[in-house]
Design goal:
Elements lengths: L3 E2 L10 E6 L3 H4 L3 H12 L3 E6 L19 E5 L3 H13 L16 E5 L2 H4 L10 E3 L7 H12 L4 H8 L5 E2 L1 H4 E2 L2 E2 L21 E2 L8 E5 L1 E2 L10 H4 L4 E2 L2 H14 L4 E5 L9 H10 L3 E4 L9 H9 L4 E7 L3 H7 L5 H13 L4 E8 L6 H18 L2 E8 L16 H15 L8 E4 L2 H11 L3 H9 L11 H14 L1
Parallel strand pairs: 2-3, 2-4, 4-5, 5-6, 11-14, 14-15, 16-17, 17-18, 18-19
Antiparallel strand pairs: 1-10, 6-7, 8-9, 12-13
């Protein structure tokens, strides 16, 4: 395995634990949460081994160990599609999906954590024996202690009762009664980051989606209130890491490991009050820089220069729409004028390509707003000479957002809007943008999964993790809203 451990971890352990990521190794290695949980389990003395969705999902990365040797299986579920992948993986391993079907017998204990648990853990509720809600590192010592104590005698009832005592753990066999949530839980999403959580990759590998890049977490949460985004409502208040602590840790890593590229993981890098000091350090150490997220109104010349110095010739931003008025309603208070100005600055520094994220089907959107996407793209090309890649996807209402009760556009209407956009973009003759569009049917599936409650999760389990066989309507969505209100 072409991995290099950034942090020395204990070997072995006294509780075999399969840690699954429902995607391939490259994607799993790009997820800091997966890094953190693996490291935390190893430091707790757990015999954790990693499993990914491919190429051989039933043998571990560390020891090529067969899955059936692990009495505990957990997954990091980052988004709705990961849940389907997790369920199908368990089903392919001949593990009964519904927790009730595993109560008797020597089946493994199934758990989950990850970003979905901040938003709608009910999607996972029919399959998992326990779900860690929010920042998992707060709960892991308790989970590990409970599993060690109660798994020896095989008494699952005692184990589930013990896990249910923690306020940030949802235990469906205990907390789901007659198909409804019977208890309030608390998302762990408010603890200070410094001194408690790791901040960098646990391992480095050239086979990550970002290549051999050291990932560094700068902050969690977001103070902005974009109407479509789950970050403000679900992931807690904005929490910054101390820049001095970050730089000290980076110096330690640079002294011990060959690092060429550093990836800054943050909802919005420009929000960190001392981001430029960090960029100065990385420049002085001749390290390339990439950003997980850049927002137009926080974009500075120093950030752009850092990208270019690191060999990057492309920038990624999210205007969301080509209409100032509609963008303002999304919570993004910047104009097409500012977008063009920042793109001109990027071009002047040698960045010759931009990837722009747009949404269609936004509340209040008109056909003219769709045309404005093409108009803004044409203007950027004319004034900067850049090559553009437009990534366009349907708006999907999610729990915990300002627009949680907004309507989903529906496949026919979204296809109609796509047709308008394609026609308008065809009028751009010079450097016509590349267009990458999320399938409306894929977005429809994401919308349904986002609002699954226990009933739909049960149907998903009964159908082997295939969501297409699970009926879904507005009544189900309304019930899930009520269930989530009861849960939180």
């Amino acid at each position: 395995m072409d991995e290099e451990c950034v942090t020395e971890l204990p070997r072995g352990g006294d509780l075999p634990w399969a840690l699954f990521y429902p995607a391939d190794y490259a994607v799993a290695s790009s997820n800091l949460g997966y890094h953190y949980v693996y490291r935390a389990l190893k430091e707790l003395g757990i015999a954790a081994e990693r499993f990914c969705g491919s190429p051989v999902p039933f043998r571990s990365i560390e020891g090529d160990t067969l899955l059936e040797r692990f009495p505990v299986i957990t997954a990091s579920v980052a988004y709705e599609g990961n849940a389907e992948g997790f369920f199908r993986w368990l089903n392919s391993a001949n593990i009964p999906l519904h927790f009730e079907d595993r109560l008797l017998g020597s089946f493994p204990i199934i758990g989950a954590g990850g970003a979905m648990t901040y938003i709608n853990p009910l999607l996972l509720s029919a399959v998992c024996d326990f779900i860690v809600l929010g920042d998992a590192l707060d709960s892991l010592p308790f989970v590990a202690e409970s599993l060690r104590r109660y798994m020896q005698d095989g008494n699952k009832t005692k184990l589930f009762s013990a896990l249910a005592e923690h306020p940030s753990i949802l235990v469906p066999p205990v907390h789901i009664r007659q198909g409804e949530v019977s208890v309030r839980r608390r998302i762990a999403n408010d603890q200070p980051l410094d001194g408690k959580y790791p901040m960098t990759s646990t391992w480095l590998t050239p086979r990550s989606s970002f290549g051999k890049t050291l990932l560094v977490e700068l902050q969690r949460g977001c103070a902005r209130n974009c109407s479509y985004c789950t970050l403000p409502g679900c992931f807690g208040k904005m929490r910054f890491r101390d820049i001095g602590v970050i730089m000290e840790r980076l110096e330690e890593i640079f002294a011990a490991h060959e690092v060429e590229q550093v990836g800054l993981v943050t909802p919005e890098a420009g929000d960190h009050p001392r981001i430029e000091e960090l960029l100065d350090l990385l420049a002085a150490r001749d390290k390339g820089v990439s950003f997980a997220s850049l927002r137009i109104d926080g974009l500075t010349e120093k950030m752009l220069s850092a990208l270019k110095t690191g060999g990057r010739h492309s920038i990624t931003v999210a205007p969301e729409t080509g209409s100032d008025e509609l963008r303002f309603s999304c919570g993004k208070k910047f104009t097409n004028e500012l977008i063009t100005e920042k793109m001109k600055l990027a071009a002047s520094l040698g960045i010759d390509q931009a990837k722009l994220y747009f949404m269609t089907g936004l509340p209040g959107e008109t056909d003219e707003d769709i045309r404005s996407i093409a108009a803004l793209s044409g203007r950027i090309i004319d004034e900067t000479g850049m090559n553009l890649i437009l990534s366009v996807g349907p708006f999907v209402p999610k729990p915990g957002t300002v627009w949680s009760r907004a309507e989903f556009g529906g496949v026919p209407e979204l296809k109609r809007k796509y047709d308008i956009l394609i026609r308008e973009l065809s009028k751009i003759k010079k450097k016509r943008p590349q267009l990458r569009m999320t399938s409306p049917k894929e977005a429809e599936s994401e919308f349904s999964l986002a609002w699954y409650g226990y009933k739909e999760s049960t149907a998903l389990a009964k159908n082997g993790g295939v969501s297409k066989k699970v009926p879904f309507d507005s009544t189900a969505r309304a019930k899930t809203l009520l269930e989530l209100e009861r849960l939180w």
